[in-house]
Structures are given as structure tokens and as C-alpha cells.
Design goal:
By secondary structure, the chain is α+β, with helices and mostly antiparallel strands. The protein contains six helices and 14 strands. It binds one DNA strand through loops.
DNA sequence: ATGTCGCGACCATCGCGA
């Protein structure tokens, strides 16, 4: 059972990349972020042709999230409960696992696209913090369900200095601000496992490289796309990885897919 | 030191968001 997250930075610009990657990696469930289009403009037929159910929560120009699933999926929320928002940043559903799956009958999946929050001290930063507070509150309720649950997406938070090649460059940035990191720790402390950190001590595990200033050739990356596993999901965690080779393709997204494999 | 994309308004560059 392979679950992944991928910020595509425009689904219409990245469809070919996504299709190639879906065919090679064959994930069961994928959370997408930054669709940058309305639901009716989403290229759903192409992805359905690969055997995926497609559930979108789109928005014109900015934001937009989706869940792709090779198994049945029932969407429970488009938009973060308890957080009235114009922006399409949250989608949550329940995936019906194949018969006999050892993780039980269902996997709950929440796809998130966090506000960037820059500049620090602006209303945008307060909006980011409010989004995290609302997600943390909602996640408490989800954990009480005692289901396998994964919150997957672009959190726009660099959790630790080792999650950036040059952490000093991010001082003062909303992605590395102490409040952002504390908010992220508070969410994790409810009982979530960071799939990448739980399975690897490797250096340079990044999921984003800026388009500017040669960030990719210099490997000036950061890790901001995360998979947070509830205890029942973490019990089944086998391995996790980052498909960094997509960043070397022609016209790539500035993010790459991050995935984890659950036993069963 | 700088270096880039994607979108939409609106036609050709520009402002915004990242």
C-alpha cells in the first residue's frame, strides 16, 4: 500500500510528469497540491484511464488539492472543518482498502496545502498560524477515531535545521520561523509519525528546490512536504522515500513526490 | 550579485504569489 503526496505547481503544466510518475511508481493513493485550476479544468479522464478515482477541490489560479485513489474513496470534507476559507487547501476522505488488507477496512487520508505565510509579521503569517491551529484541532478529533490516518501534503514548514541545505538562509522566513516550527511540533505531538524521519537518517532529504538561483544544481533544497501517520498507520510503516529525480526532468514542478509504504 | 515559474488580465508586458 503506497501513499504519496506531490505538489505539482499547476496540474495542467505537469500532467505528463504526473502520468509518467504514476505509471512507474504505481501509488495506491496520491494527494496533489497546487492544482491552480477549477474542478472542470482538471484533466480527470487521463488519470482515470490509469485506474484512479479522482476527487478534486479546485480553485482558479491558486491553490487547489486533490486525492487520487486506486481503491474506493469517499470524500468527507472539501475545506478544513471549523476554518471558513476562500482558499482550496484541504480535502479529506476515507479509502476502502482491498479485501484482506491487514491495516483494516479503511485508511483515512487528508491532503493539505498550507499557506506559505511570508512575510513574517503580516496577515499572511497569521493566516498560516490560524490554519495550523484549525488543523491541529481537527486532527485531535480524527485521532480519537483510532483509524489508520495519514495527513499528507505541502506543509510549508521546514521542521528542523537538517531539513534545509543552508538553514541560515531561511532565518526570518515563514517556512522556518520558530512559531511555524513550534506549531508543526504541536501537531506532531498529538501522536503523529513523520514517515521520512522515522525511516531514514540520510542527509539531504529534500522535497523542494526553488526555481531561482540554481537551487537544484546546487542541491539547495528544503523538506516541506510531509506524511504524518497516526499510530495505527505508523504501526504498518515499512519504508518511505522521496522521488527527487523528477526535479531533473524538463519543466519540472519545484516540488517532488514524497511517499510511504504501509504493510498489508 | 543575480539567476524562475505559472496565472490572468489582456494583447506584450506586468503584478502577484510562491
Amino acid at each position: 500500500m503506497l501513499i504519496a503526496t506531490f505538489n505539482v505547481n499547476s496540474i495542467r503544466q505537469r500532467l505528463a510528469h504526473l502520468m509518467r510518475w504514476l505509471k512507474s511508481r504505481e501509488p495506491d493513493v496520491v494527494c496533489l497540491q497546487e492544482l491552480k485550476c477549477l474542478d472542470e479544468a482538471f484533466p480527470r479522464e487521463e488519470i482515470e484511464a490509469l485506474g484512479y478515482r479522482v476527487e478534486t477541490f479546485g480553485q482558479k489560479t491558486f491553490n487547489g488539492v486533490a486525492i487520487l485513489s486506486r481503491h474506493g474513496v469517499e470524500i468527507e470534507h472539501r475545506g478544513l472543518p471549523g476554518f471558513p476559507d476562500e482558499q482550496a487547501r484541504y480535502i479529506e476522505g476515507v479509502v476502502s482498502l482491498p479485501q484482506g488488507h491487514r491495516s483494516g477496512a479503511v485508511l483515512r487520508i487528508a491532503g493539505v496545502y498550507f499557506p506559505n505565510g511570508n512575510p513574517v509579521g503580516s496577515p499572511k503569517f497569521e493566516y498560516k498560524r490560524a490554519f495550523m491551529a484549525a488543523l491541529t484541532r481537527h486532527a485531535e478529533g480524527l485521532l480519537a477515531l483510532e483509524e489508520p490516518l495519514i495527513i499528507a501534503g505541502d506543509f510549508n514548514v521546514i521542521p528542523q535545521p537538517q531539513d534545509a541545505r543552508f538553514p541560515e538562509n531561511w532565518r526570518g522566513d515563514a517556512l522556518f520561523q520558530s512559531e511555524s516550527r513550534a506549531d508543526f511540533r504541536r501537531l506532531c505531538a498529538l501522536g503523529f509519525t513523520d514517515a521520512i524521519r522515522a525511516t531514514s537518517d540520510d542527509a539531504r532529504l529534500y522535497s523542494f528546490w526553488d526555481y531561482q538561483a540554481g537551487a537544484w544544481p546546487r542541491d539547495n533544497g528544503i523538506r516541506i512536504d510531509h506524511l504524518l501517520l497516526s499510530p495505527l498507520a505508523a504501526d504498518r510503516l515499512m519504508e518511505a522515500g522521496i522521488d527527487r529525480e523528477l526535479r531533473a526532468e524538463e519543466k519540472p514542478s519545484d516540488h517532488v513526490p514524497v511517499w510511504c509504504r504501509l504493510r498489508g
